[in-house]
Amino acid sequence: MNRIKLIFLLVFSVVVWHVEARAKQENDLQRVIKTCIKASDADEEFVKLTFDGKFQPSLEFKEYLFCFAREAGMVNLDNSMNNDVIEKMTAKILKDKRAAKEIRDDCDNTLYDPLNTVYYTFKCFITKIKEMSSAKKRRRRS
Questions:
Q1: pLDDT tens digits, residue range 29-48?
Q2: Signal sequence: where (predicted)?
């Protein structure tokens, strides 16, 4: 009987730890979003539409994306994209490492300035993730 209690306690502890870790990640994400909206003066309502694939080519929005990417570790100290981090995040979203690598290769943009590099890289990633997610849903229905 003690062994069952110990196993239950261990499983319960892992679940609680996981829930707390997810809550911390969510809080960190919200903090980064708020910090970057304030720093860039981007439109908060438009920022919320980003993950629906709606991008605003304004300077404020590009500054927001750059701030977000830098805070999330997606931009290196030299302002180049950290494609390894982006690929890992994409793999987590899609639950598919091969697809994440394919997107990384398709979206590897290095442009004339860091703001545009981040903007067009994000735009490409979000578009490709949405396309792959839609394709997976269609395959499941078939």
A1: 788 888 999 999 988 888 88
A2: 1-21
